[in-house]
């Protein structure tokens, strides 16, 4: 089977091509067979006012592409520029691995894997910002 497979928890919501879909009472799996469908798990969504840190801003751009609210070609430059800026600060091997994965995904127009790789950096960013503030 090809395509994206979503594993949904009970009552989990997902945005697919602009339509909000809510899962039923049981876990389920959806196979999305349409290439380039706009898909975003709402539990992963970052609201505009939450895009207030460098990693969150880059995640938000990827999210806009996934929700269909941004043109992928225009977002590509912003994403690559944002990832490059993050790579100048997040220099540890694990962060580099995630940033490399995000870059490769963006270059292949695979925005869901890009968002997934970028979201993995959020806890690290939170720790760094907390350490800088304290």
Unreliable stretches covering 5 or more consecutive residues: none
Which series of helices and strands comes N to C? EEEEEHHHHH
Count of individual beta strands: 5
Largest sheet: 3 strands, antiparallel
Shape: globular
- Please report the distance between the alpha carbons of the first and last residues: 49 Å
Major beta sheet, strand line-up: 3-2-5
Please provide a written account of the structure.
A hairpin with a 2-residue loop joins strand 2 (13-16) and strand 3. The longest helix is centred in the middle third of the chain and has 18 residues, at 72-89. The chain is globular and about 45 Å long. The strands form two sheets. It has a three-stranded antiparallel beta sheet with strand order 3-2-5. Strands 1-4 form a two-stranded antiparallel sheet. The N and C termini lie far apart (49 Å). By secondary structure, it is α+β, with helices and mostly antiparallel strands. It folds into two domains: 4-43, no CATH class; 46-133. The chain contains five helices and five strands, in the order E-E-E-E-E-H-H-H-H-H. Helix 2 (72-89) runs antiparallel to helix 3 and helix 3 (93-107) packs antiparallel against helix 4.
What are the key terms here?
16% strand, three-stranded antiparallel β-sheet, alpha+beta, 2 domains, 134 residues
In short:
Helices cover 51% and strands 16% of the residues.
Topology:
Blueprint: E1 4-8, E2 13-16, E3 19-22, E4 28-32, E5 39-41, H1 54-67, H2 72-89, H3 93-107, H4 111-119, H5 122-133
Antiparallel strand pairs: 1-4, 2-3, 2-5
